Amino acid sequence: MMPDWVFDDADRAFMTEALSEAAKAAQRDEVPVGAVLVSGGRIVARAGNRRQAEHDPAGHAEISVLRAAGRALGDWRLEGCTLYVTLEPCPMCTAACRQARLDLVIWGAPDPVAGACGTVLDLAEDPRLGPPLAARGGLMAAEASALLRAFFDTRREPQD
Question: Is 88 annotated as catalytic?
């Protein structure tokens, strides 16, 4: 994870928008992960998890926002774009980001179970998969973690 000074005010503003998408996902009873995709300093797509609503195992926020951005920009190649996502991408999402040719992924909370941008695996940098995907983690991690913790705390059995 990167120190907070690595990120600027624009990064914080875009991550705030991703956190808003995560909160909307929680309201839909989805795991609260949100994402926005930025090109030229503007948001071109936004999404939150939709696995439950769409009965889609690939309904992660990252996949949904990549699909929406491809449609909005008229190309599957999202070169010049940055993805802001509240949780470190899993292997599926990291691979999709590489396939989309993103310039950068900035993520919030680390994922100690399936994080594929350095926490558990580092598929973003793996040279066997072609050019690396630049990724920075830890932006507004406390806020992203708090959303996830609150969501899962309401679903866990009380401990005696």
Answer: no
d(CA 53, CA 48): 11
Q: Are strands 34-39 and 81-87 parallel, antiparallel or unpaired?
A: antiparallel
Report which of 55, 52, 51, 54 is spatially closest to residue 93, judged by C-alpha positions: 51
Q: Convert the pLDDT of each residue in 92-108 to its tens digit.
A: 999 999 999 999 999 99
Q: Give Cβ neighbours of residue 11 (< 8 Å, ≥ 6 apart).
A: 84, 106, 139
CA pair distance 41, 150, nearest whole angstrom: 31
Report pTM.
Answer: 0.94
Distance CA 157, CA 65 (A): 33
Select which of 62, 79, 88, 157 is catalytic. Answer: 62
Inter-CA distances, 130 with 94, 110, 122, 123, Å:
13, 24, 13, 10
Q: Token pair for residue 121?
A: 């695996």
